[in-house]
Amino acid sequence: MNDCIFCKIINREIPSDIVYEDENVLAFKDITPQMPIHILVIPKRHIKSIADLKVEDENLTGKIFTAINKIAKDIGIHKTGFRIISNCGEDAGQTVKHLHFHILAGEKMSEEII
Ligand code: AMP
Ligand code: ZN
Question: Which of 8, 11, 63, 67 has the largest count of CB atoms under 10 Å?
Fold first, then answer.
């Protein structure tokens, strides 16, 4: 996916503030944070959204959530709490068509942020 902004971040073609990386997963700070802590966690392989996951991707999605768990512990929000959001498709307002999970944290959240 040449025109995918997150693939460009993975390939270091555009800069980002990376907070976690392993063989399959990358996490970086959201460029327009909606909360004091706002991190995006993505698979390194281009997948459009949760709606495009296949059974064979089960292992990868497990790895994404293991990475989220590690990041939460690294930055201490496993104690205070955090919210995971993945917008999928038009009605949810997904703007970047590369699967991503928002980690939101750093202050008490109202329900409206959903
Ligand atoms: P969504 O609306 O769920 O598709 O979220 C896309 C997110 O990507 C938004 O929160 C954007 O602020 C974020 N974003 C877009 N471009 C960049 C970028 N170059 N670096 C970091 N975050 C980005
Ligand atoms: Zn991509």
Answer: 67
Is the minimum distance from the CB of 109 to ligand 1 under 6 angstroms?
Answer: no
25-29 and 82-85 strand pairing: unpaired
Question: Block means of pLDDT (10 residues each) for the chain, length 114 residues?
Answer: 91 98 98 98 98 98 98 97 98 98 95 63
Ligand 1 in reach of 2 Cβ (< 6 A): no
Task: Give me 38's structure tokens.
Answer: 């706002």
Q: Which of 6, 7, 8, 30 to mutate to test the pocket of ligand 1 (most atoms within 8 A of CB)?
A: 30
Among all residues, which ones are annotated catalytic? 100
How many residues appear in the chain?
114
